[in-house]
Design goal:
The chain is of the alpha+beta class. The chain has a domain at 29-41 and 68-138: 2-Layer Sandwich (Nucleotidyltransferase, domain 5). 31% of the residues lie in helices and 21% in strands. It has four helices and four strands, in the order ααβββαβα. It has helices at residues 2-9, 12-25, 94-105, 130-138, and strands at residues 33-41, 71-78, 81-89, 118-120. Strands 3-2-1-4 form a four-stranded mixed beta sheet, with helices on one face. The mean pLDDT is 82. Pfam families: DDE_3 (PF13358). This is Tc1-like transposase DDE domain-containing protein. Residues 33-138 form the Tc1-like transposase DDE domain.
């Protein structure tokens, strides 16, 4: 199911247009790009799901069984380092992510095609937000 969803979102013509834009409009040193990603940490995220043991023996796994607090981090990074970061308790949703982009990141951005003019995001569902897209285009 997941692969079908990913394949459905892929558009070869759009991908080709994007590659042509990259080749035609960018310097090649990466200063135009600002990469944004988020991650989270709770008491369960460090544990391994698989281990190694001798043939026929069970793999011992010791892990904390306390849920604890969850923290999420979002950061914006360029080739020169971090330009914005934020930590929240819990998880990011569309509204929190949109607030981070509009209040902390967009004021540091420049018009295309200068330095810091392109925001690069992954395909996370909280990034699919019409208000966010409108705010970025307006800025």
């Amino acid at each position: 199911k997941i692969l079908h969803k990913i394949a459905a979102e892929r558009d070869e013509e759009c991908h080709g247009d994007f590659r042509e834009q990259i080749i035609a409009n960018f310097q090649g040193d990466g200063h135009e790009f600002v990469f944004v990603d988020e991650t989270s940490k709770d008491e369960c995220t460090w544990a391994r799901h698989y281990g190694h043991a001798m043939s026929g023996a069970r793999v011992p796994l010791s892990d904390v069984f306390v849920q604890g607090d969850q923290y999420s981090l979002v950061a914006a990074m360029t080739v020169d380092g971090y330009i914005a970061a934020e930590v929240v308790e819990g998880s990011y949703d569309c509204d929190l992510f949109c607030d981070f982009i509009t209040q902390q990141l967009l004021p540091t951005m420049n018009p295309f095609p200068t330095e810091r003019s392109v925001i690069v995001l992954d395909n996370c569902c909280i990034h699919h937000n019409e208000d966010l897209e409108a705010a970025v285009r307006e800025a």
